[in-house]
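Ticket #4471: structure output looks truncated?

Reporter: J.K.
Steps to reproduce: submitted the chain below (282 residues) through the standard prediction queue, then opened the result file.
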Amino acid sequence: MKKLVLSSMLAALAFSSAAQNQFDDVEISTTHVGGSVHMLVGAGGNIGVSAGDDGVLMIDDQYAPLAQKITTAITALSDAPKRFVINTHYHGDHTGSNAFFAENKGVTIFAHENVRIRLASGDDVNPAMLPVVTYQDGVKFHLNNETIHVFHLAGGHTDGDSAVWFEQPDVLHTGDLFFNNMFPYIDLGAGGSVNGYIQSVETLLGKIDDDTKVIPGHGVLANKADLQRFVDMIKETNAFVQSQKAAGLSEQAVLDAGLPEKWDSWAWRFITEERWIKTLYQ
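Returned output as attached by the reporter:
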């Protein structure tokens, strides 16, 4: 029995070590977007940062093993206190460092109320990772001489999506309502839906103009034209799959036929063409 327990412990330690090691070579790159706003890219969702004399506000915080690297990158922008984190939804590549920043930096975490519910329902939850302030529709910050609008969009990527618009520099952080030049992940098991996702993106498009800089949840810095091209892809591929389904083709038959060749470049490691077709077919 002792050997079994020891074996399990060693396996858990090996897994933990492997999980940590996969982030060893990750570098956090920083791009100034406008005003106080910067975009940080590492592994996981893109981070938005407002850094100035009033303090630091972060939008998402990637995976827990990257917390110190993220801290170093932000400190290079400003040595002001890290005060706030906004979670755009509950997925671990956007909330993984919540506990680190709450416990070590004293930040207050904000999110839609469904984000707290979903994070709290996980196994072995560290209470420090949970949003302290939750909202239904949104909240507004006045920080670093800028007005920051946080607003909820229902039933798109998940049931707890938020987007963040920095009014003065005209910068929008979409969370995972935008995967630039990639098929998106739509979490159908957490309140997301294809039609809701399309509606959420169209709502965002209605709030911005051609000069708005757009930080996607994943992918390179973008603009309104990129976001429009993204939602056009979703509409067109969805119409294609739905027409095949209406004609009586099974999911497997649609998978075997595949999407038109023009969409080949949108597939990526996590959302392959096969997985995207399955999402649309459902």
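Triage note (M.O.): checked the attachment and the full token line is present. The domain at 26-223 is CATH 3.60.15.10 (Metallo-beta-lactamase; Chain A).
Status: closed, working as intended.
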